[in-house]
Amino acid sequence: MRNDSPNPLLYEGLAIRAVLLPLLNVNLLLPNAAVSEVTGYKTPEEELRSDKKKWFLGSQSWRQQVVPLIQFEIIAGTPAQPPGRHCRVAVLNTLNGRDELPYIGLVLNDIPHLVRVHEEIIQPVKKPRKLGECVARQVTLSGEEAWIPDLDALEKLVAAQVS
């Protein structure tokens, strides 16, 4: 399939089923297949390590798996609030087939919602901010800013923290 579209983010005529994951001041935009499930937030089991990063909250049990729990806002260098009872966790599927890290838990500030992304509603941000290697793109989606994460970079970052 060729990309003759003037929008470099989409192929002409293609609509992608995606999910908007609400962070504190912005949404993450991911394909549906990247999210395994959304669960309620539970206080994570603390990791007692001297080199623990601020974005790494600990781990949470999910379907008999130990899932590392992170705050993406902190990874991107933007403000975050401590998670509360109203928060949710998006359990993301990892991409690289690591048995020791099949999932990553991402703290959300609200309930995510499904969207169909097509050429008419998505545009690159005109003046993107420097948000680090885990943000692949900054876009506007129906006028609202959203970040498209680099899931490979995120997985490597989390794997280095939990190993």
Describe this structure in words.
The chain is mostly beta strands and 163 residues long. The chain has a single domain (16-162), classed as Beta Barrel (OB fold (Dihydrolipoamide Acetyltransferase, E2P)). 10% of the residues lie in helices and 39% in strands. The protein is built from 2 helices and 11 strands, in the order E-E-E-E-E-H-E-E-E-E-E-E-H. The chain has helices spanning 72-75, 151-162, and strands at 16-22, 27-31, 35-40, 56-62, 65-70, 88-93, 103-108, 113-117, 122-124, 135-141, 144-149. The strands form 2 sheets. Strands 8-1-2-11-10-9 form a 6-stranded mixed beta sheet. The protein has a 5-stranded mixed beta sheet with strand order 3-6-7-5-4, covered by helices on one side. The longest helix is centred in the last third of the chain and has 12 residues, at 151-162. It is globular. The relative contact order is 0.24.
Number of DSSP strand runs: 11
Distance between the first and last residues' Cα: 40 Å
Q: Name the CATH architecture.
A: Beta Barrel
Low-confidence stretches: none
Quote the CATH topology: OB fold (Dihydrolipoamide Acetyltransferase, E2P)
Please bin the fraction of helical residues: under 10%
